[in-house]
């Protein structure tokens, strides 16, 4: 969606960032809008926080302070720049904006990383987790995640509740007057998941399992990590800190691996997962048992999770549709190779 010229001009005046030469909307990302700017003073990334509250910008300000502190520790972060009054959040109309320096880079998934680079990725996430605790020092939660966010925490999901979700989604799929290939795949995966759920209901994680929690990025995946565009394959910026929160750290490590290292056929590249997990454990001091337990909880979460289909059929929001085939296949593959996956994270 193009940014109105009058809005752009007003924002640039607030930041003292010159006159716009180019403003290009960026298509990557599910929860915010971003623009690549070229002005008479430089190049920037302008972020429109769709879930920002104009009446209470404190959560975004705290997020910005945390990322600035991480950058000061030498982590690859691009904190926002301040406007003429020293504010990092600018409210224009009823919308919240932040201006960041433009970072030239490219996204890489796990298929584009070798084992050494996978190892460095795990070490990087471990450094992030340790540094977040250092800079935030257990301050109160910055904010509750907005309703639009993908529901990551389904660890304690009950099979009976999940079956109700499956039934509801199947009804919506079967009520479609004209079926598409997506509908056919959705029905197949829903029926398949019901069978898996009934076969593995006894493996639901116990309520007594209390994982170690700490501050996490909250959405660590390939679209939120930029690598050098040229030269050595090194991360230059971790972006999109909107889901900064206190959660089980080992679970974020597992979720990230399940996104970075999923293959097109839905399987995980386990040798790369192993290299990544070993580096993460070395950087954080997390035990092998902690990672194995986290892998089990995230597997159960995935087995009971249908957020992509709910977006598609309940919200009529198709932004996540391209992710569905591999994500749905991963659940089946992970269930069949549960022991091997656990071993890759813990050995």
Describe the main β-sheet briefly: 5 strands, antiparallel
Low-confidence regions: 138-155
What order do the helices and strands follow? HEEEHEEEHHHEEEEHHHHHH
CATH class of the largest domain: Alpha Beta
Q: Strand sequence of the main sheet, in spatial order?
A: 1-2-3-5-4
Q: Which structural category do the helix and sheet elements fall into? A: alpha+beta
In helices, the fraction of residues equals: 40-55%
Question: In CATH terms, what is the fold-level topology of the largest domain?
Answer: Aminoglycoside 3'-phosphotransferase, Chain: A, domain 2
How would you summarize the topology of this molecule?
Blueprint: H1 5-15, E1 20-26, E2 33-39, E3 42-49, H2 58-72, E4 90-92, E5 95-101, E6 105-106, H3 115-136, H4 159-174, H5 181-200, E7 213-216, E8 225-228, E9 235-238, E10 245-248, H6 249-260, H7 270-284, H8 288-303, H9 307-314, H10 324-336, H11 338-346
Antiparallel strand pairs: 1-2, 2-3, 3-5, 4-5, 6-8, 7-10, 8-9
Helix pairs in contact: 3-7, 4-5, 5-10, 6-7, 6-8, 7-11, 8-11
Give a short synopsis of this structure.
The chain has 347 residues and is an alpha+beta fold. It is built from eleven helices and ten strands.
């Amino acid at each position: 969606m193009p940014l109105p010229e009058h809005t752009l001009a007003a924002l640039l005046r607030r930041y003292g960032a010159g006159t716009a030469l180019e403003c290009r909307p960026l298509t990557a990302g599910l929860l915010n809008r971003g623009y690549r700017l070229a002005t008479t003073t430089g190049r920037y990334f302008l972020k429109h926080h769709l879930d920002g509250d104009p009446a209470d910008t404190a959560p975004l300000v705290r997020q910005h302070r945390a990322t600035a502190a991480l950058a000061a520790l030498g982590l690859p972060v691009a904190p926002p720049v301040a406007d003429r009054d020293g504010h990092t959040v600018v409210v224009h109309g009823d919308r919240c904006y932040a201006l960041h320096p433009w970072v030239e880079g490219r996204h890489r998934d796990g298929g584009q990383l070798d084992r050494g680079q996978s190892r460095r990725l795990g070490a990087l996430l471990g450094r992030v987790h340790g540094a977040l605790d250092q800079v935030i020092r257990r301050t109160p939660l910055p904010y509750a995640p907005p309703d639009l966010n993908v529901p990551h925490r389904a660890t304690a999901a009950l099979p009976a509740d999940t079956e109700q979700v499956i039934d509801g989604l199947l009804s919506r799929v079967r009520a479609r007057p004209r079926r598409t290939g997506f509908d056919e795949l959705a029905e197949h995966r829903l029926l398949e998941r019901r069978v898996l759920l009934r076969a593995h209901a006894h493996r639901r994680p116990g309520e007594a399992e209390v994982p170690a929690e700490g501050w996490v990025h909250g959405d660590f995946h390939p679209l939120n990590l930029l690598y050098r565009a040229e030269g050595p394959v090194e991360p230059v910026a971790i972006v999109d800190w909107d889901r900064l929160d206190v959660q089980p750290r080992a679970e974020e490590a597992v979720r990230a691996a399940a996104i970075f290292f999923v293959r097109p056929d839905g399987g995980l590249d386990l040798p790369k997962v192993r290299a990544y997990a070993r580096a993460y454990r070395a950087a954080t001091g997390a035990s092998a048992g902690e990672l194995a337990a986290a892998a089990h909880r995230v597997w159960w979460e995935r087995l009971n999770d249908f957020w992509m289909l709910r977006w598609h059929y309940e919200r009529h929001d198709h932004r996540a549709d391209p992710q569905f085939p591999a994500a749905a296949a991963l659940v089946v593959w992970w269930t069949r190779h549960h022991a091997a996956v656990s071993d890759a994270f813990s050995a």
